Amino acid sequence: MKDVELKMLERAKALLESGEVARVIGWKKGDFCHDPSPASFESVEELDSFVYDYFCGANLSKYLIQMSKKEGKTAVFLKPCDSYSFNQLVKEHRIKRENVYVIAVECLGKLDIEKIKAKGVSFVTGVEVQDKEVKVTTPYGEEVLSKPDVVLTKCATCNKTHQVKDEEIILHERPERDVNRFEEVEKLEAMTEDERFAYWRAQLSKCIRCNACRNVCPACSCVKCVFDNPASGIAAKANDDKFEEQLFHIIRAFHVAGRCTDCGECSRVCPQNIPLHLLNRKFIKDIDGLYGEYQAGETDEGKTPLTSYTEGDAEPNDVFKGEAK
Amino acid sequence: MIDETLIPKVGVITDIRKDTPDVKTFRVVGTDGKKLFQHMPGQCAMVSVPGVGECMFSITSSPTNEEYMEFSIKKCGCVTEVIHAMEVGQQITVRGPYGKNFPVEEDFKGKDLLFIAGGIGLAPLRSVINYVRHYRENYGKVVIVYGARSKDDLVDIEEIQTEWVNEPNTEVYLTIDRPQEGWDGHVGFVPSYVKELGLDPNMTAVLCGPPIMIKFTLQGLLELGFDKSRVYTTLELRMKCGVGKCGRCNVGDKFVCKDGPVFRMTELDELPDEY
Amino acid sequence: MLKIAKERLNELYAKISETMGLFIPVNYAGEVNYKVWKEGAEVSLETLKTVKSPKNMFFPQTENMMKFKTEGKNIEIIDVRKDYKEEKPFVLFGVKACDYKAIEVLDKVFLAEPVDTYYQSRREATTIVTLACSKPEESCFCGVFGIDATAPQGDVTTWLDGEYLYWQANTEKGEALTALITALTEEGGEETVAGQRETTKAVLENLPFAKLDLSRFTPENLNDLFEAKEWEEMSEACLGCGTCTFVCPTCQCFDIRDFKTNEGVIRYRCWDSCMYSDFTLMAHGNSRTTQMQRFRQRFMHKLVYYPSQNDGLYSCVGCGRCVNKCPQRLNIVKVVKTLGGKKDD
Q1: Residue A294 sits in which domain range?
Q2: Closest CA relative to residue C268, chosen from A247, B240, A243, B258
Q3: How far apart are alpha carbons A108 and A151 in whole angstroms?
Q4: Domains, chain B, with CATH or none
Q5: CA gyration radius for chain C?
Q6: From chain B, which residues contact C within 8 Å (Cβ)?
Q7: For residue C326, what is the nearest residue in chain A, using CA coordinates?
Q8: Would you say residue A196 lies in a domain?
């Protein structure tokens, strides 16, 4: 990964120095080895804090809504999953494509520090990843963890590839994997209604209504969210495990259905680790079944199943019954 | 002392006066027909319409009025729109009084006073002006400069023209932004009018109005030689609790609801510029 | 000092629950938060940081305050807090030193005149049992605020070590609680506790944030810090969500809202966040229009405004929840490091 970081840094420097771009969006070092933050770099000096490592899980696409409106071009490093969000935002006219220079950057799956800590390993000072092993350094010695156990949930079943690039930095090819991203959804589908209801009741009751899922979501790009609009009549910040939280998340899932690229940021940022991505994946699975396979963000143009009509479309009744064609 | 901090009292609207196209003055008493609570000039109260919301308004009537309280309210949001549609007899809820008042019993005493207001900014000043009128002998000369967009936007114009102008040792200067038929008074913005008037910089000044008016009027006063420590104004920020707990009206180490709304200009200078 | 065998802790919880409500860290749906103890609850005292702090015991995320019944032009106000006053006393169990200190920070807001009686009634009805930390982690920095994680205050202080929970009452309330559970206790444990404290202290001293320098965060520097150009850069990645505020044990901003029901209007208050764009929104404008201003407000309030109003007490206790939970890894430590180091500016 260090070689990738150096290459990225080299390109960022060149782009800034030549004046081709006014800024580069990437990640900057944190206090530990595991807490980089998204950042924009406007000068070569600022790049001193640039980092690209196994903890750069954040999706940078949404920042381009603001950044692409700024003076001058913005270069951005996009991981495979981020590129879908980028396309979707271009399609929705949220990002000005002509103002962005996309550098596709490799990703072999990002790590989740919370999962590492949950394995009883704290004070992580460094990680080294080799195939399916993560060697973690701490002041008390080294620990070897299984990589699938400690990657971000969104990375666990990812097979995404870059959908947009002006250039690419890919030094290591990620092997194609045999994964089924709908496995968890299928487990939920196999439950009885009561079991499923109990599952979501328990999960959603943890919600503290911080709105991190919404604010990070590239599909949630409304200028003013209906839940923030005092004139909407449903603006609310209350946390009520009986009713409201369930509706908030379900309404949100409906709103992003057909546009959600399954980037998984909602689950990554949830402070209570609610598997919110499963709501979205259920929609994706149903859309696939009802309208034929569709992946939002594969292109930045064209019609989408939920915003176009064909005579062969599923009847509302099919949807209620949950019967795929 | 407020016994039930966040629980209001029920008030009844006993009179509604339409001051301008978008300002109405509401007279309020308790359900027993008596004044809801005592206050001092410049203090505010939380008025609410259950189901719609609660807002902070300055109490426009003078504390010397023992019978009722008045609120001059400009229609500009959800709550004020509903209040504007109300009729006499309608009940609302009121809690307060909140905030620091103008130092009428301390710094203002024995001083010549200059009141400068723009538009609805007269609301908090009306309370203090009428308080000063009531205890007229305690104060020196009073100069009032009041401006609005048009003659129809001057709040409480009747009281001003029939009562204030006839007070001894009191000068009243009115102005509107643009010439208008039926107006033979001064035309021009408050800040420039203030400079034209060449006011005595030894007066204690109280400013209230839109931020832009306050900014330029203050500049004008400083040019005339006024001392910031003798210039007061009021701030308005979003408030929910009114008692310095909900955090909304926090600016620097002050809460506008509790430490304001009345501030000396020298105090504002020490606050971060975020109000 | 007293001690209770670990395998008898469930008896302890059951005993307390007979007469009082017991709030304790419980693992529910995969996360540990303070919840009412019930038979079979998966108590997790070992969890260093509950997701939510125990602040919602006194200052719930949502609480109904009053009810309005309207008929024609008339309004009737019903004080629903009477319901709370009849609530039985409760015990808050397993509070860490940082979270205990945070209650002091909240007290200064809610118990200052005019007293917030909603908060006060719950606060007074509570006996707090604290639990010393023995395994701090890298995001902890309570020591910076003068907190001793190995000996928290509270009505009762406890230590968990080996096969026992060690128990020491500090106040009358604590003694009363101890009297209730004497059947489960035995004497002893001073040496074990002293040993644990010594070991933990050594870890605490060497934590990565143990040497954070707060000296620049004083009322005198208020305007300089406010004007610092670094706020732009520090807040750039901020999503404007409320995670930091909601997991923070000292954040106490709230909103008051009305909710229409079939039985009248309920006025409730709920947690609010200065990170939200509508926090300062008024009908005719907003005093903070950018995320930078909102981000700055949060940290200035914790590090400068609050201390300036409260004799230098910071409104941060170093619990490190924001360090762990910010989706984009922004936090108060980064602010302190960025702004705190430059004393000659």
Answers
A1: 183-321
A2: B240
A3: 10
A4: 9-98 (2.40.30.10), 113-234 (3.40.50.80)
A5: 22
A6: 1-2, 4-10, 50-54, 76-78, 80, 87, 89-93, 236-238, 240-241, 243-248, 250-253, 270, 272, 274-275
A7: A269
A8: yes
Cβ contacts (< 8 Å) between C272 and chain A: which residues?
A: 237
Going by pLDDT thresholds of 50, 70 and 90, the confidence category of residue C343 is very low
Of C254, C258, C309, the CB nearest to B53: C258
Question: Which pLDDT does position C4 carry in this prediction?
Answer: 97
Residue of C287, C295, C297 for testing the chain B interface, max B β-carbons within 10 Å = C287
Are C158 and C257 in the same domain? no
Domain hosting residue C174, numbered range: 2-51+82-205
Residues A106 and A237 grouped into a single domain: no
Nearest Cα residue in chain A from C241? A212
Which residues on chain C are in Cβ contact (under 8 Å) with A227? none
Q: Is C29 inside any structural domain? A: yes
Task: Give the model confidence (pLDDT) of A8-48 as tens digits.
Answer: 999 999 999 999 999 999 999 999 999 999 999 999 999 99
Distance CA C97, CA C111 (A): 21
The reply to whether C233 and C192 lie within a common domain is no
Both A29 and A164 in a single domain?
A: yes
Residues of B in contact with C77 (CB under 8 A): 7-10, 93
Does the complex come out with an ipTM higher than 0.85? Answer: yes
Q: What is the pLDDT of residues A101-143, one digit of tens each?
A: 999 999 999 999 999 999 999 899 999 999 899 999 998 889 9
What average pLDDT does range C107-121 have in this prediction? 93
Structural domain contains residue C150: yes
CA of B119, closest CA in chain C: separation in Å? 14
Q: Are residues A97 and A192 in the same domain?
A: no
Q: Grade residue C190 by pLDDT with cuts at 50, 70 and 90.
A: very high
Looking at the structure, do residues C105 and C240 belong to the same domain, yes or no? no
- Which phi-psi region, left, alpha or beta, contains residue A260 (left: φ > 0; alpha: ψ -120 to 50)? beta
- Single pTM value for the model: 0.93
Q: Are C143 and C18 within one domain? A: yes
Per-residue 3-state assignment (H helix, E strand, C coil) for chain C? CEEEEHHHHHHHHHHHHHHCEEEEEEEECCEEEEEECCCCCCECCCCCCCCCCHHHHCCCCEEEEEEEEEECCEEEEEECCHHHHCCCCEEEEEECHHHHHHHHHHHHHHCCCCCCHHHHHHHHCEEEEEECCCCCCCCCCHHHHCCCCCCCCCCEEEEEECCEEEEEECCHHHHHHHHHCHHHCEECCHHHHHHHHHHHHHHHHCCCCCCCCCCCCCHHHHHHHHHCCHHHHHHCCCCCCCHHHHHCCCCCCEEEEEEEECCEEEEEEEECCCCCCCCCEECCEECCCCHHHHHHHHHHHHHHHHHHHCCCCCCCCCCCHHHHHCCCCCCHHHHHHHHHCCCCC
Is C197 found in the same domain as C95?
yes
Closest in C223, C258, C269 to B272, CB measured: C223
Asked whether residue C14 falls in the same domain as residue C145, the answer is yes
Low-confidence ranges of chain B (pLDDT < 50): 1-2
Within this chain, do residues A207 and A296 fall inside the same structural domain, yes or no?
yes
- For testing the chain A interface, which of C236, C253, C260, C298 should be mutated: the one with the most A CBs within 10 Å? C236
pLDDT in tens, C147-162: 999 999 999 999 999 9
How many domains is chain A partitioned into structurally?
3
Number of domains in chain C: 2
**Domain-embedded: residue C284:** yes
Cβ of C73 within 8 Å of Cβ of B90? The answer is yes
Task: Tell me: do C187 and C232 sit in the same domain.
Answer: no
Residues C257 and C188 in one domain: no
Same domain membership, residue A164 and residue A141: no
